[in-house]
Amino acid sequence: MTLNLSSLFALMLKGRLFEEAIAKLWHDDLISGEMHLGTGEEAIIAGVVAQLREGDAMALDHRGTAALLMRGVDPILILRELIGHPDGLCGGMGGHMHLFSKEHLTASSGIVGAEGPTAAGFALSAQYSHPGAVAVAFFGEGAMNQGMLMESLNLASAWKLPVLFVCKNDGWAITTQSEKMTGGELNERARGLGIPAVDVDGCNILEVWEASRTAIERARSGNGSTFLNARCVHFEGHFLGFQLIRMVRDSLREMPGIVLPLAKSFLHPRGGALRERLAGLKLVLASVLATMRDPRLDLANDPVRRARITLQSDATRLHKLENQVEKEVRKMLSTALTEVLP
Q1: Most CB atoms within 10 A, among 91, 181, 211, 250?
Q2: C-beta of residue 39 within 8 angstroms of C-beta of residue 19
Q3: In sequence order, which residues have a C-beta less than 8 Å from that of residue 181 and are 6 or more positions away?
Q4: What's the pLDDT tens digit per position in 59-87?
């Protein structure tokens, strides 16, 4: 497959704008519950999905909307599913974490680590029924501490299953820095099970595309699985509305909601000993300071922006492409909400 940066950028931009539209629907209270977006993962998703063909399968985590869109699932059905409409992809019953498309051999799950067994099952079926097809598992680095994902890596190695295990590594397991709760090194875990491991800059679409191309070709040829460790940044944290992210973006508005309750609890006459209170306060302040230094603030970690810079030499073509994608996403949103909302 030939690399086409313009096409990859269009996929990335479509995924970004689509998820930004979803975020607006969530903020407007048209989508209920938590919302986990993949903004910041676009290079990883596009770099892999663009190389899939008919018969290939995907096992997705709770951030699956962009991958579904890029794979060709009807965006109208996705949007209607998210707002809980009966005409949605899963009849309005799955929400944003449990999305399925039999036609595209794609399934997502909110169960951390479930992507491993799902992809292994897809791949085992491919070995018998569709030789040359591959399965892709997308998951975060926190899932590497789940037994079923490690078991899936072992099985994929033992049976030479055609799986590409894609670890979208943003360094955070919800609100805990991953290095503080993970023993050893993830690449070495995969290699210890006999699976080649590759580190890539998940914000660089060219790196991701090349690494996944090699891994997918290896799987199609019957040579087994590959573990792709792609470093990235989640711009919205674990979920939309994450308070520490809001604090960074609007400190004057958000800080009183953090500082005042902390001060009240710290000065309360009853409760834990002073030493325990100081330890708790230190832990909270460390989290706040870590967020203030967070890589989300660095524009160099925006994969869409980085790809755009590469294409700026032909500004006319770039603007035309951007306008086309923006128009397409606006139409998706308008069509999805027509005759659905009062």
Answers
A1: 211
A2: yes
A3: 142, 145, 173
A4: 999 999 999 999 999 999 999 999 999 99
